[in-house]
UniProtKB/TrEMBL annotation:
This is Splicing factor subunit. InterPro entries: SF3b5/RDS3-10. GO terms for cellular component: precatalytic spliceosome; U2 snRNP. PANTHER family: SPLICING FACTOR 3B SUBUNIT 5 (PTHR20978). One of its GO terms (biological process) is mRNA splicing, via spliceosome. Pfam families: SF3b10. The lineage of its organism: Eukaryota, Rhodophyta, Bangiophyceae, Galdieriales, Galdieriaceae.
């Protein structure tokens, strides 16, 4: 008995979404998605010393100060979320 390839794809996608927070899910809010993208970008900047050096030379600041500001932004790049995301079950009960 052959399994449906589409069903297999969805099960793999659900596994990835449960394992890695940044991959998102169907109920993710715009704020959460943007926050994940910003955190990924900031982590990349911090991981590449040459990018930190570039930012420091452009802004006329020291490397340490640039790293400090990036680490501060990493905590909450867009502030706190003002909206509450409803699950599928909650949306269905509102109808």
């Amino acid at each position: 008995m052959a399994t449906n390839p589409q069903q297999n794809l969805y099960s793999q996608l659900e596994h990835l979404q449960s394992k890695y927070v940044g991959t998102g899910h169907p109920d993710i809010s715009r704020h959460d998605w943007c926050t994940n993208m910003a955190r990924d970008s900031i982590a990349t900047y911090l991981g590449h010393a040459s990018l930190v050096d570039l930012f420091a030379s452009v802004e006329g600041e020291s490397r340490g100060r640039i790293r400090y500001h990036l680490l501060e932004k990493l905590h909450s790049p867009y502030g706190e979320s003002k909206e509450r995301v409803l699950s599928k079950k909650e949306r269905l009960t509102q109808l």
